[in-house]
Amino acid sequence: MTVLFDLFIKFFSFLLESVGTLASYTPCATYFDEPEVPEELTNLNR
Question: Which domain of life is it from (predicted)?
Answer without folding.
Answer: Bacteria
